[in-house]
Write a structure and sequence with these properties.
Layout: H1 3-22, H2 27-39, H3 62-71, H4 78-91, H5 94-106, H6 113-125, H7 129-143, H8 149-161, H9 165-177, H10 187-199, H11 203-212, H12 222-234, H13 238-250, H14 257-270, H15 273-285, H16 292-304, H17 308-320, H18 327-339, H19 343-355, H20 362-374, H21 378-390, H22 397-409, H23 413-425, H24 432-444, H25 448-460, H26 467-479, H27 483-495, H28 502-514, H29 518-528, H30 539-551, H31 555-567, H32 574-585, H33 593-606, H34 610-622, H35 629-639, H36 642-657
Helix pairs in contact: 1-4, 2-3, 4-5, 4-6, 6-7, 6-8, 7-8, 8-9, 8-10, 9-10, 10-11, 10-12, 11-12, 12-13, 12-14, 13-14, 14-15, 14-16, 15-16, 16-17, 16-18, 17-18, 18-19, 18-20, 19-20, 20-21, 20-22, 22-23, 22-24, 23-24, 24-25, 24-26, 26-27, 26-28, 28-29, 28-30, 29-30, 30-31, 30-32, 33-34
Length: about 650
């Protein structure tokens, strides 16, 4: 055999031995044993010693290869170093990786770009973003390795994965605009930067980058369109996202199931189920079969809209199309049933899941336990809890919190506190919802001191208070007549940058009204009008003020406020009607409540707010205050529409046969 062939064969053999060690799960020990045997073979050559901070006691790795000439066969090869880099990168042994890199630099070895890409991934897994960027810039100067778009994309991906979106954008602009690097972004580069911009909420900037792609001779692919569509949907710009679907098909880019699912999800979250269904039809026309994600998204959308019957029907269609429902599918149905006050039906779905041998998770149990308590079926909820424990399903913080909240709802805060102690002993950490439920339970049972103690325990356990916690505390203090303490909590909440919600505002307004500080309450109400949507006044807030104004016989001001409430799109409820009926009867010259309520019904019909109008009509009938003939005509015309009649008949038949 020729000498060069023998050298080549033995070099390949040595490389294959090293690669075989790479497949071992704990390669470091195997390598050290292997290296110690090889290092014992004498060597004629020595290399520059390694820096003191890197394994001083160990021999340099190059000693392994110096034995080659003595054996008369092995010739050092760069592919061997690549095998070492590959092994250490995959195993996450970064110190060993540094030693190999140092040795290669000392011996002026050629470091291939693919080696750097492996190292970028290894440092990325260790969350060492600075080291990744630093190594990228060292590639040329220290290792004479030419940087290409592949290494650029690898670094960019690491930065984005670690969540440093602003830094990723800076890195992208710095590299692309540096002419000395001569790196031209490819489709993957554009996809990464578009994804990054969408994460930052810079969707318009992402669109600009998208439009630049053809100019830079890069054709957008399916991933590009999907990323941009997802960004637009998250910004509630679904119309633009749907237009992109048409554009990509015109450009000859065939949409994938993921593309359709992104749009369906965006439309379902917006509540536009009609268009979501059309997207599914489009999907089928393109020969793209709906998958589990498609069905789960649609079922979730239907449940959010309260269309449980259609959701169950879609579940049957899903099975008939050989698409197997999973825990998410059933969990969505259960959650939808609970939200509609049909927890008992949810339990039946749970039984069906068990029969089909699905794993029942804690979230399904927590939803059902919470729903049963809310429906007043506390015994059924406790039985389900015991059944869950019996079946070996370990409760987590979510389930414990649902049980604590349920026990407090039925007036058993002391039992709920015992559950809290059990929860903490089992290593489950209570959250803000857990503590706020317990505080509310003690306040409602008249044990305000105990509720305040829970508040202190919450602070002691470093649980961050949110707007709900503050609302519960302020409401409880105001309800107990402790207005000065409530004001202190209010001031603390504002000083900590926690924005009050509608409940907190309403509680403070109620406390001020009860203390006779109506002017201060109105001032706080006016402040409320300029807050975020979640802090806007609702019918409860208005009713508190109506009651306070009417008690002071200031009915004209109360009626002005009622007009303002209706102008802001807030409908009166049964309590509003009762407040004004009582006030009108108590006047020196009592006025006809029938005429007052009839006028409200007519005004609501004119504004096409029929649901609010029907509620007032119900109040009128309960109090034997029949609406006028002209008002009845409007009610009948609206109610007797063919679709509404058919819907009522269908509901009736379902109730008869369910």
């Amino acid at each position: 055999m020729p000498k060069w062939s023998l050298y080549h064969s033995q070099t390949l053999l040595f490389n294959s031995i090293i690669r075989s060690f790479s497949s071992i799960k704990t390669p470091s020990k195997s390598f050290h044993c292997f290296f110690s045997v090889l290092s014992s073979i004498p060597s004629n050559k020595r290399v520059d010693s390694e820096p003191e901070n890197i394994y001083e006691s160990e021999k340099p790795i190059s000693d392994i290869f110096k034995s080659g000439p003595k054996l008369g066969s092995y010739k050092q090869g760069d592919s061997t170093f690549y095998s070492l880099i590959e092994n250490y990168a995959n195993s996450g042994d970064l110190r060993a990786l540094e030693r190999v890199l140092y040795q290669m630099r000392c011996e002026k070895r050629v470091v291939l770009e693919k080696s750097f890409i492996l190292m970028f991934k290894a440092y990325g897994k260790a969350h060492l973003v600075d080291e990744v960027v630093d190594l990228f810039y060292r590639m040329v100067d220290e290792f004479q390795c030419k940087r290409t778009v592949r290494s650029f994309n690898s670094v960019l991906n690491v930065i984005i994965r670690e969540g440093f979106y602003s830094r990723a954008l800076e890195f992208y602009n710095c590299v692309v605009n540096d002419k000395s690097m001569n790196i031209l972004p490819n489709v993957l580069s554009f996809n990464l930067v578009i994804k990054n911009m969408c994460k930052l909420g810079l969707v318009d900037k992402a669109i600009e980058v998208f439009t630049e792609m053809p100019v830079k001779k890069c054709v957008p692919d399916v991933y590009t369109y999907c990323t941009l569509m997802d960004g637009l949907c998250k910004e509630n710009r679904t119309d633009e996202a749907v237009l992109l679907l048409d554009e990509m098909q015109i450009e000859g880019c065939f949409p994938s199931p993921v593309t359709f699912n992104v749009l369906i999800n965006g439309l379902c979250k917006k509540g536009d189920l009609a268009r979501a269904t059309k997207i599914v039809d489009n999907m089928l026309l393109k020969g793209c079969a709906p998958n589990e994600v498609t069905y789960n998204t649609l079922i979730h959308g239907l449940c959010l809209k309260g269309k449980l019957d259609k959701a169950v029907s879609l579940l049957d269609q899903m099975v008939s199309n050989k698409c197997v429902p999973n825990e998410v599918t059933y969990g969505t149905i259960v959650d939808g049933l609970v939200k509609q006050g049909r927890a008992a039906d949810g339990v039946r779905v749970l039984v069906s899941m068990e029969e089909r041998q699905f794993r029942l998770n804690e979230y399904i149990y927590s939803s059902l336990i919470s729903g049963l308590f809310k429906e007043g079926k506390s015994e059924d909820a406790m039985n389900l809890w015991k059944e869950m424990i019996k079946k070996g399903c370990k409760p987590n913080s979510v389930v414990y919190s649902a049980l604590i909240d349920g026990l407090c709802r039925v007036g058993k805060p002391d039992e709920a506190e015992e559950v809290l102690f059990e929860m903490m002993n089992k290593g489950c950490i209570p959250n803000a919802f857990t503590y706020s439920s317990l505080m509310k339970g003690f306040f409602e049972s008249g044990k305000s001191d105990k509720a305040i103690q829970i508040w202190k325990e919450m602070a002691k356990n470093n649980c961050i208070c949110n707007a709900v916690c503050y609302s519960v505390l302020i409401n409880g203090l105001c309800g107990g007549g402790k207005l000065s303490e409530a004001k202190m909590v209010w001031a603390q909440m504002l000083s900590r940058g926690c924005k009050p919600d509608a409940v907190a505002y309403s509680s403070m307004i109620h406390g001020l009204c009860n203390a006779g500080s109506l002017e201060e309450a109105l001032k706080l109400f006016n402040e409320m009008l300029f807050q975020e949507p979640e802090s806007q006044p609702d019918v409860v807030t208005y009713n508190i003020l109506f009651n306070a104004l009417c008690k002071q016989s200031n009915i004209s001001c109360a009626i002005d406020l009622l007009n303002s409430m209706m102008d802001r799109g807030c409908d009166p409820d049964i309590y509003t009607c009762n407040i004004f009926l009582t006030a009108l009867k108590g006047l020196d010259t009592p006025q006809d409540g029938r005429e007052f309520l009839d006028e409200l019904v007519v005004r609501l019909f004119k504004r096409k707010r029929t649901l609010g109008a029907y509620k007032i009509v119900e109040v009128m009938l309960q109090k034997f205050l029949s609406p006028k003939a002209s008002t009845w005509e409007k009610i009948v015309q609206d109610f007797c529409k063919p679709k509404k009649i058919q819907a009522a008949i269908d509901t009736c038949w379902r109730n008869l046969y369910s």
